[in-house]
Write a structure and sequence with these properties.
Elements (H helix, E strand, L loop, with lengths): L3 E2 L6 E2 L2 E4 L9 H13 L4 E3 L15 H12 L8 E6 L17 H15 L4 E6 L25 H13 L3 E7 L3 H14 L4 E7 L11 H8 L2 E5 L26 H4 L1 H4 L6 H16 L4 H11 L3 E7 L3 H9 L7 H14 L5
Parallel strand pairs: 3-4, 3-10, 4-5, 5-6, 6-7, 7-8, 8-9, 9-10
Antiparallel strand pairs: 1-2
Helix pairs in contact: 2-3, 3-4, 5-6, 9-10, 9-12
């Protein structure tokens, strides 16, 4: 795999990134380390995590994923220098009091979270430090509409940028990014960075897959024109686009017991658990089979080959899943298949937005 540059930063990454939010909940430390070993062996140099992982978020597992990765670094001297490491500071802790004291995300919170992540990761610097979700109250994680009456913002984007800039200046962070952002947020972060000589965001990490292409409703143009790279997460729609729920549905006695949507009620209540999302996924999965592809191959090839995507974040629970996802790289979709994908989207829209 050829490396791609993230935004205007000096970070060069593979077009596939290993996501790690399953480590510490669905995946034990031993299995996580074997997945990390295999990913590196297969040539992936990009690793993404977050302070709030593993998922689903719970107080007992807060920071568990970073700790597992840090232990792997300690066990394998020299590995850290081969990787581009990304992690995230959690946004306002709405409904998650274990994230931090208070309900906001202050400049001091950003610095404290970074220092805690560095300690758990057992590293001196984070290559890409991202704001996991906006400090502003925006529609995300299944919310559809922006509601000004719910706005409780207390820390300006300028203050957030200054905090990130202090981390870059201190050598603790190389580049910065956003996640679950809107076109307004991307524009404002870039505008203020350029106006005040602060670090410019290199990336935005947002959902992008066959059942959620909302990025194409304007955010893709914003990122293209501003030179910001997309890190696409949930390319398999939390498993909907693997076909494993096609016959059983996402709940009930026949649903795959280890699938995230089936296993965790909190996930099933979110966007990925909507009946409309499963109905659309079944149509995409049938299209894959009709064209002698697996559902996984179709869904990943869609992300791997889209001009909007710099790197696709894959999350796995086994080495076998990792190999399957990596083996899908290089799969080409014909113009006819792409046209059929667009027909389904026109009918089903973005049910997992």
């Amino acid at each position: 795999m050829n490396k791609v540059q993230l935004g205007s930063s000096d970070l060069q990454v593979t077009p596939i990134c290993l996501g790690t939010m399953t480590f510490g909940e669905q995946v034990s430390e031993a299995v996580a380390h074997s997945i990390l070993d295999r990913s590196l062996e297969r040539g992936v140099n990009f690793l993404d995590t977050a302070e709030m992982y593993s998922v689903p978020a719970r107080a007992p597992t807060f920071g568990a994923t970073e700790t597992i990765i840090g232990n792997w670094f300690a066990k394998n001297p020299g590995v850290r220098s081969k990787l581009v490491l990304a992690t995230k500071v959690a946004g306002p802790s709405r409904g998650m009091p274990w994230v931090r004291e208070g309900s906001g995300m202050t400049a001091a919170d950003i610095v404290a979270s970074c220092n805690a992540s560095l300690k758990r990761l057992q590293t001196e610097a984070i290559d890409l430090y991202q704001i996991h979700w906006p400090e502003r109250h925006v529609p995300a994680f299944g919310m559809v509409y922006y509601d000004p009456s719910r706005e409780r913002s207390a820390t300006s984007i300028h203050e957030q940028l200054e905090a990130m800039g202090s981390l870059v200046k201190a050598g603790k962070v190389r580049a910065i990014g956003l996640s679950n952002e809107t076109p307004y947020g991307v524009h404002e972060f870039v505008r203020l960075a350029e106006q005040h000589g602060l670090p410019r965001i290199a990336t935005v990490q947002n959902p992008y897959c066959l059942v959620n292409r909302t990025l194409e409703n304007g955010l893709d143009e914003t990122m293209h024109r501003l030179g910001v790279s997309l890190l696409a997460y949930s390319p398999l729609g939390f498993g909907l686009l693997t076909g494993k729920y096609d016959q059983s549905g996402t709940e009930g006695p026949n649903a795959p017991k280890e699938g995230r949507i089936a296993k965790f009620e909190s996930v099933r209540k979110q966007r990925w658990g909507r009946p409309e999302a499963l109905a659309a996924a079944r149509r995409y999965n049938a299209l894959a089979r009709d064209n002698k592809l697996t559902p996984t191959q179709l869904a990943l090839a869609f992300c791997y080959t889209k001009w909007q995507v710099a790197s696709t974040i894959i999350g796995v629970t086994s080495v076998a899943q990792l190999d399957e996802d990596l083996d899908a790289y290089g799969t080409k979709l014909t113009p006819e298949v792409l046209a059929e994908i667009d027909k389904i989207r026109w009918d089903a829209r973005d049910p997992a937005l």
